[in-house]
């Protein structure tokens, strides 16, 4: 390949990169079958390269459902049965069959699966009213403290937030309010938590109820959920004030930070329990640039090595991956018609939806997953964090 184009990475090269990694964060678009095939291939490569394979932490499963995963880990439940026990359709919402390769590889190589997320609805409840709004049975799953977002992540999420705000205002049936994910906390509260790291014990008076499905924190193509409408606040015929909008943004940031912190904290606990590396499967928004889970791991387990693996949507021969999004990439185009932040995906043949049989090189048919290192200019031993390419 030309020097300007990222080269394909083979099994040996990936394993060399992963050899000293304590945490391997593999991003995904939740609806991409190709992404899940690539994740399964990474698991297979890691499992067959050492005496004991990694543990696997799943964003898709709330910690209250760990007993179901324990049964699957012991071989008591089939993949189909575990999907029922996990209440997958209601609690996660994305097609379980797309995740089939991940569960198959875990079962084949006896890789222990762990829940990495809060129980369904817990983050949204926290967003509405803090700890006191949570089901008492769910409070034990909160992290010791919420590790706040760094400035790069805040800037990125503000762009996402403002994009969705503009979309809401432009809707013909728009009601003058904007959509946002569960979050609560005004600027002062966030500033206080940034100093103390404490989770506030009482809800704020301005906490607003929200409506929305009780699925995971990140939806298709790993953009944060900003789609639960305000049921209170600015009137239906008026735009929210600047203060209201900023408060909504801070609540949004708080809950995104809560999700990232919870998954990082769980990964640390899993590593200590298993004494093995941990592969975290999560939406790319939690992985890219190292702004999400990786940033929190740096606080919770500062001596650990973290490897980032992310999907790249444009064919590398046409548009090489950005150098700072991830350490390793795999090529998985978006299915036709998928939208990226309101922009339709580039035209692709229908067969690009087909999942790959293997992670292969650039010469494979479109739709195959292709792990790739960053461009030639990037030092291979230097970990990078990189933003959502979707």
Automatic annotation (TrEMBL):
Biased composition (Acidic residues): 348-357
Residue ranges, compositional bias (Basic and acidic residues): 181-195, 202-226, 234-245, 381-390
One Pfam family here: Cofac_haem_bdg
Region (Disordered) location: 168-245, 340-390
Gene3D superfamilies named among the record's database cross-references: 3.40.50.11550
Taxonomic superkingdom: Bacteria
Residue span(s) of domain Haem-binding uptake Tiki superfamily ChaN: 14-297
Xref: InterPro entries: Cofac_haem-bd_dom (IPR007314)
Protein name as it appears in the record: Haem-binding uptake Tiki superfamily ChaN domain-containing protein
Organism from which the protein derives: Oceanidesulfovibrio indonesiensis
């Amino acid at each position: 390949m030309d020097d300007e184009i990222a080269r394909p990475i083979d099994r040996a090269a990936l394993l060399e990169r992963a050899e000293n990694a304590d945490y391997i964060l593999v991003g995904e678009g939740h609806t991409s079958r190709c992404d899940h095939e690539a994740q399964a291939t990474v698991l297979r490569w890691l499992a067959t390269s050492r005496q004991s394979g990694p543990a696997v932490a799943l964003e898709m499963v709330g910690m209250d459902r760990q007993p179901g995963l324990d049964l699957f880990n012991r071989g008591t439940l089939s993949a189909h049965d575990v999907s029922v026990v996990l209440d997958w359709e209601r609690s996660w919402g994305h097609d379980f069959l797309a995740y089939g390769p991940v569960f198959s590889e875990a079962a084949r190589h006896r890789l222990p699966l762990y829940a990495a997320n809060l129980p369904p609805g817990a983050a949204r409840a926290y967003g509405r009213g803090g700890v006191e709004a949570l089901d008492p049975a769910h409070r034990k799953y909160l992290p010791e403290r919420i590790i706040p977002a760094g400035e790069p992540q805040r800037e990125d999420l503000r762009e996402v937030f403002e994009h969705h705000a503009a979309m809401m205002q432009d809707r013909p049936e728009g009601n003058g309010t904007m959509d946002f994910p569960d979050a609560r906390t005004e600027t002062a509260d966030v500033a206080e938590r940034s100093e103390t790291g404490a989770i506030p014990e009482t809800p704020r008076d301005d906490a607003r109820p929200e409506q929305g499905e009780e699925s995971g924190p990140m939806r298709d193509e790993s953009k944060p959920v900003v789609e639960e409408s305000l049921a209170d606040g600015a009137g239906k015929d008026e735009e929210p004030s600047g203060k209201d909008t900023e408060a909504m943004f801070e609540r949004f940031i708080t809950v995104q930070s809560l999700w990232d912190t919870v998954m990082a904290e769980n990964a640390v606990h899993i590593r200590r329990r298993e004494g093995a590396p941990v592969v975290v499967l999560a939406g790319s928004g939690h992985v890219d640039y190292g702004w999400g889970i990786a940033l929190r791991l740096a606080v919770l387990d500062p001596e650990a090595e973290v490897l980032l693996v992310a999907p790249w949507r444009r064919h590398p021969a046409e548009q090489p991956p950005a150098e700072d999004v991830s350490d390793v990439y795999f090529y998985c185009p978006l299915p036709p018609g998928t939208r990226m932040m309101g922009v339709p995906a580039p035209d692709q043949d229908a067969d690009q939806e087909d999942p790959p049989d293997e992670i292969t090189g650039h010469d494979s048919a479109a739709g195959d997953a292709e792990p790739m290192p960053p461009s030639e200019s990037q030092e291979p031993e230097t970990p990078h964090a990189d933003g959502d390419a979707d």
